[in-house]
Design brief:
The protein contains 17 helices and 13 strands. It is of the alpha/beta class and 354 residues long. The protein has two domains: 157 residues, Rossmann fold; 167 residues, Rossmann fold (3-Layer(aba) Sandwich), CATH 3.40.50. The strands form two sheets. A seven-stranded parallel β-sheet has the order 3-2-1-4-5-6-7, with helices on both faces. Helix 5 links the parallel strand 5 and strand 6. Helix 1 crosses helix 17. About 3% of the residues have low confidence. GO terms for molecular function: CDP-glycerol glycerophosphotransferase activity. Keywords: Transferase.
């Protein structure tokens, strides 16, 4: 059996790699298609680390030509692909999303039907089936966290030589939009001097020109001795989730992924909205978020303003089990089975349907 992973962005890899490793354990060969961009040198490190068989392309026109020639059994995608009609003449397609956040795009990206989409949990499966009744969806769970649940060595170990082992560790992982990042004070690491601070912004915040205000703030925060700022090469959120005792986030999939580990989460309700999402245009923000946004919100303690944050952090770290039952009750809805076998279920499906 021949498998290809279409890797248009570096941050797809934390979802792909557990499946790739499971394929290797089953003696199945796979290849990666990487798209040329400004971070080729970082991708090359990943290629070298895993000894990945791969090719480079400039755009989807090149990748589809490659797929037509290769005639693989399966091609994996983390998002939509323009040339599915051509691909399906030679290969089957599998969609494996890279996040489980509260944005409506989780559902709309299935509007272009692939052979199968692997999803997390019966609830999401049922919703997708009701929206796209003629398409194939399979509940496998959330393979990105398989390494943590299986207590495996976590790839991308962080170099935290400046951290104090006697202090608890906070992870701040804002998304790129809508984000709380620009509403944090310039000196906020001083306010949390009693803690180690990991900052893992969204890939876009540290890689795209339109978010240069984010990068300026992030670079300033990285100068504080109790802060570790993720670099672009720290493409995986998994090592950060593993190290942290508490997460601070906003409308990010990181918030839900951390909650699945049953550790305390603080959700920032204060967001920097563009003018086109305010006032009479607030419907645009609501449209961007999933219909279950309100229920998902129960998985965390909410900070209405930045000034409330310090007290909430202290409370949650003192009583980390206070929302444990709610987190566990929502886990199945958010991600399905959390037994470390999601990657295995994916590979078993591929083998049965080659």
């Amino acid at each position: 059996m021949n498998i290809i992973f279409d890797t248009q962005s570096l941050y797809y890899l934390p979802q792909y790699i557990p499946v790739y490793k499971e394929l290797c354990r089953n003696g199945i060969k796979s290849k990666f298609v990487f798209y040329k961009n400004s971070h080729e040198h970082l991708i090359q490190r990943v290629i070298d680390d895993y000894d990945l068989e791969h090719i480079w392309v400039n755009e989807q026109q090149q990748s589809i030509a490659y797929y037509e020639n290769e005639k693989a059994d399966w091609v994996f995608f983390a998002n939509s692909f323009c040339y599915l009609d051509r691909l399906h003449k030679v290969s089957k397609s599998a969609q494996l999303g890279h996040g489980i956040g509260p944005k409506s795009s989780y559902y709309t990206k299935s509007s272009q039907a692939m052979t199968v989409r692997f999803v997390e949990g019966q609830y999401r499966l049922n919703r997708l089936k009701s929206m796209y009744p003629n398409d194939e969806f399979v509940d496998v769970g959330f393979c990105k966290l398989d390494p943590i649940f299986n207590k495996e060595k976590i790839d991308g170990t962080l170099e935290l030589t400046n951290f104090d082992n006697k202090k608890q560790t906070i992870l701040y992982a804002p998304t790129f939009y809508p984000s709380s990042l620009e509403l944090f004070p310039e000196n906020w690491p001083e306010h949390f001097g009693d803690y180690n601070i990991l900052i893992k912004p969204h890939y876009f915040s540290i890689s795209k020109e339109r978010y240069k205000k984010h990068l300026k703030l992030l670079d300033h925060w990285s100068t504080y001795p109790n802060v570790y700022l993720a670099k672009v090469e720290d493409y995986s959120l998994v090592p950060f989730l593993d190290k942290a005792d508490l997460l601070i986030s906003d409308a990010s999939s990181a918030l839900f992924e951390f909650a699945l580990l049953n550790k305390p989460v603080i959700w920032c309700d204060f967001l920097k909205l563009r003018w086109g999402y305010k006032g009479i245009f607030s419907y645009r923000f609501k449209k961007r978020m999933d219909q279950d946004y309100g229920e998902y919100a129960n998985v965390a303690i909410h900070a209405k303003k930045y000034k409330n944050l310090k007290k909430l952090v202290e409370q949650q770290l003192a009583e980390p089990e206070s929302l444990a039952n709610i987190r566990l009750s929502l886990s199945e809805k958010l991600a399905g089975k959390m037994d470390g076998k999601a990657s295995n279920r994916i590979v078993q499906y591929l083998m049965k349907n080659k």
